[in-house]
Specification:
flat; 622 residues; 12 strands
């Protein structure tokens, strides 16, 4: 089939490549993107940015506050500055002069926009920073209000350049306090600080993805002969990947699984800026390991379809940067974050049996048809069938084994994003990752808490069981009480049999164990209350994904080998904090020592046949 005579290159696809992991820096600068849009006469990728309208409303108010936008590189600070400039009446032509400082009249004041504080020379900073401090500390004494963009690592450092006057010191301390305490404002000062690094990965991704998939540039593909050819194997992989991300045929299943991974990454403490999310989407749609820059363009499609290598453009593998060199993958934050889940490397026996033996095994054949044969483009493509047959028939060939194992890796990745939602539990979807309890963590902990729901007690009981086993070093099954024990002199000993105290999980005499949402970080906290006394504060532990997985695995009876010693030491440090708070409780409640001077009482832990820990008292004569 030869479509070259009717084939037309898409400017939109060429532009979308600029956001991908290409070996150039154009996608690192908002200005470069704007020039490319203007040159190619393409509409920008527009999506609703959190806080943008708030910022515009602030500067349009009768008494606006100065604003600092901070975050990591790529969080959209320059974009916000440009959008605010244009919404408030600034001209595009003036913005494109690429100054570092812009001025714009408001109702009562003049807005000074500093596009990048770190780009200002030190000499100019020494003059500028006292004026900014004046606008923050004494806003009635100046007719200026500021919008300042600065990377979080350079924000405080910039203030060290100015002479250390009382106003400068007060402004520096204010900014540092807002950053450390993760607050937006102090009502006593005329400043709002927006940390764009606190935006949710998954929410921003969804907005960007909608903007890319619904961009009018895709209309250029409507006349492309590779969009809907009679032979499905001749279909354009770019359009195929775009269609799968759209998710109109599977209720947006792939999109939802990506959102799950991004949300889990956030709960693990990983922030992905807008620039990285744009890179991810571009690579999912355009990635291919055998083309220039590892990203497809329209000119390469005829060759790809002729050589029948479209299957190598799998979006399920592109999502992990499999089209790139390992060096490039390991230098790209979004791929490092997503590959952390081990998808493709991890598997279950049943899934692998389907992929390897499903065609011939009557017990597996139905699942093989549903999960593999129905997808002829990235599932049961020709190369997979050949490699599968060769693997089964030529066991002595190392090359055939290697080729099929590589394809098996990509098939596991595909299945993670295509196993139907109603079969997640049956097929144990999350066993395809390094975090078998990640689904429970999302669906039964994080999302219910976000909706102001309480989580089931049995989940807390299981976490407590895992903690008890780590705290004592014993395979105990207590789960309705937290068991505190030491070795007698060392709280972090591997085996602790000297009993200290039980802490009730169910609320009782000021004691309780709960999991609650930390509203400052939008993540769950594991909270242990030891007393109702106002001076005995609860002890909190951030219940991130790694800790949740670790504690559940320990509760199941096996210490996970793929978790580092850091997890274990992390929990022992938590135990030390609890014991310290227990001592405070004893002091505040003035627990009496009922023993006589001639004897000492030691309480030891013993396990019964059911693994329940009980205390046994020993009296030692002095």
């Amino acid at each position: 089939m030869n479509y070259n005579s009717t084939f037309k290159k898409s400017k939109w696809i060429t532009f979308l490549r600029q956001y991908g992991p290409i070996p150039r820096n154009d996608n690192m600068y908002d200005e470069a993107i704007q020039r490319a849009l203007k040159k190619n006469k393409i509409q920008p990728i527009c999506f609703e940015t959190p806080y943008l309208q708030e910022l515009i409303d602030n500067f349009q108010s009768d008494f606006p506050k100065s604003v600092i936008l901070t975050g990591t590189a790529g969080d959209g600070k320059t974009f916000c500055c440009r959008e605010i400039w244009e919404k408030l009446g600034g001209s595009k032509e003036e913005w494109e002069t690429n100054q570092e400082i812009y001025k714009l009249p408001l109702l009562q004041k003049t807005l000074i926009i500093i596009k990048d504080l770190s780009a200002i020379q030190d000499e100019e900073k020494t003059q500028l920073l006292p004026q900014i401090a004046e606008g923050i500390i004494n806003p009635y004494h100046t007719d200026k209000v500021y919008l300042i963009a600065a990377n979080d690592g350079q924000l405080i450092e910039a203030w060290n350049v100015a002479e250390n006057t009382p106003q400068i010191e007060k402004a520096r301390q204010l900014i540092e306090t807002l950053l450390v305490e993760e607050k937006r404002e102090n009502p006593e000062f005329n400043l709002l600080l927006y940390n764009l690094s606190r935006l949710n990965n998954e929410e921003i991704f969804s907005r960007i993805l909608d903007a890319v998939l619904n961009h009018p540039g895709w209309e250029e593909c409507s006349q492309c002969p590779y969009q809907t050819p009679t032979d499905s194997q001749q279909r354009c992989p770019i359009w195929e990947n775009k269609t799968r991300l759209d998710g109109k045929n599977d209720q947006q299943l792939m999109r939802q699984r990506i959102i799950d991974l991004l949300e889990l990454s956030r709960h693990k403490g990983t922030h992905l800026p807008i620039r990285q999310l744009l890179l991810l989407i571009s690579n999912i749609i355009l990635g291919h390991p055998d083309v220039k820059d590892k990203l497809l363009n329209c000119n390469q499609i005829p060759k790809i379809t002729t050589q029948k290598t479209g299957y190598l453009a799998s979006p399920y593998s592109n999502l992990f940067g499999e089209n790139l060199s390992s060096r490039k993958r390991n230098k790209t934050d979004v791929f490092v974050a997503l590959r952390y889940f081990g998808i493709g490397t991890e598997s279950s026996n049943y899934i692998d049996n389907i992929l390897i033996f499903g065609e011939d095994d009557p017990d597996l054949k139905q699942d093989y048809e549903n999960l593999v044969l129905t997808d002829t483009f990235y599932g049961a493509h020709q190369q997979f069938r050949i490699a599968q047959k060769s693997y089964l028939e030529s066991n002595d060939s190392q090359d055939s084994k290697e080729e099929f194992l590589n394809i098996l890796h990509t098939q596991r990745q595909r299945l993670f994003f295509t196993i139907p939602q109603h079969r997640v539990a049956e097929l144990k979807l999350w066993e395809l990752t390094a975090f078998q309890y990640a689904g429970d963590y999302l669906e039964q902990v994080c999302r219910p808490l976000k909706q102001n729901q309480t989580i089931p007690k049995y989940l807390i009981f299981k976490i407590v069981k895992g903690i008890n086993r780590i705290f004592t070093g014993l395979l105990i099954n207590n789960q309705d009480q937290l068991v505190l024990a030491t070795s007698g002199s060392y709280s972090q000993a591997k085996i602790s049999r000297v009993f200290e105290e039980y802490i009730s999980v169910i609320k009782k005499r000021g004691e309780s164990v709960t999991v609650e949402l930390n509203t400052d970080h939008n993540t769950p906290d594991f909270i242990i209350s030891l007393s109702s006394h106002p001076e005995v504060d609860p002890i909190k532990l951030r219940l991130n994904l790694t800790r949740y997985e670790y504690l559940n695995r320990v509760a199941e009876g096996a210490l996970p080998s793929n978790f580092s010693q850091e997890c274990y030491e992390d929990m022992l440090a938590f135990k030390t904090r609890l014991l310290g708070q227990l001592n405070i409780r004893r002091q505040k409640e003035e627990e009496a020592d009922e023993t006589e001077a001639s004897e000492m009482i030691i309480r030891l832990l013993e396990l019964n046949a059911d693994g329940i820990a009980n205390e046994r008292t020993l009296e030692i004569q002095l």
